[in-house]
Predict the structure.
Amino acid sequence: MLLDQATPEQLREWESQLSQEYDAIVGKKLNLDVTRGKPSADQLDLSDALDGILDGNYVAANGTDTRNYGGIDGIPEAKRLGSDLMSVPADNILVGGNSSLTLMHQTMLTAYYFGLSGADSAWKNIDAPKVICPVPGYDRHFTVCEQLGIEMVTVPMTATGPDMDAVETLVKSDSRIRGMWCVPKYSNPTGVVYTDETVERIAKLGLIAHADFRVFWDNAYAVHDLVKSPATLASVFDLCNKHGTADSVVQFASTSKITHAGAGVAFVAASTTNLNGLKAFLGACTIGPDKVNQLRHARFLPNRDALMGHMAKHAALLQPRFDAVLSALSSAFDGTDLGNWETPEGGYFVSFDTRPGCAKETVRLAAEAGVKLTPAGATFPYGKDPEDRNIRIAPSVPSVDEVVGAMEVFVTCVKLASVRQALTR
């Protein structure tokens, strides 16, 4: 199906056929959800041994009774787990509660109101601070900025990571740029892994940016590979130390898609300056995180080999779901001009671009047919995709059969929305 070469008669014929197929799907009264990248129940079951693993022994290696208050930056065993996950020295890691998003919000809030390197560094001291957002990107990152009233400036996401020429131009030309969001491995939603060159250019931003500029490096999918020989991500920590820009990047990760999603452990990896700034904020709002849960996780995943072996079990459950999505897209759209998509080697999403102007209609049609998709525009700041193209597909929660069913609906809706748009030309 090549819409750009079709005659009006062909378009009307396709529209009639697709409308019949769509009506038949609606009649099935489906109720499927591929909106959010959550682990399935089978994946959560992989970590049920956390329950009871302490067997009454709540004492950390340094003698800390984890049942009590204190320890605002986490117990040593949990820092070791963070080091295994993030490949950053344990001394540079702070361990929090279950959510890395919470730590990202708290870090940006600290940077905005209080400053990560003292009151003079607070972003609120300038008029209209801005943060760079590669797009398509992660909607929850955008929500953090929107809540704090921070203006978002977009740059395109490419096959190698953010368009670094655009990023460097913005940083050099606008002194109000104070931050940048990054999902460097299996980027949400495109699945891109930043190349070594991109990582090094990001590490060097601190040489040209304002001293209060911070990259928020959300390595949410650091070990979430689907293939046996995945692309590797260069160490931004090592490269920042190489270029003398250690304060310019703050890294985040968590076990939320490794163990129990709602009861995991989150981590910040940063320079001493940034950690001290964050701890000053945390010291005013908490007496310490859940150290019992930190200890449970440290004993459940005692080393890097245990962590990677555990992630291989996740991959075995996720891969058939991703295969179902990619097979459906390939069967329906190879050789057509109806859309483009990524083939990720890890993470939790497949990113699909419709023809311009068709994403919202595709999502609407799918909803009426009983398949919930992430709202069109969610992968852009303020929910506004300027071309109305990008749709994020999250296949992890439904069964494989349900993913197959959801994709049957999806491809039909993409085709129908595209043909109907072409008929209006």
Observations:
- The mean pLDDT is 97.
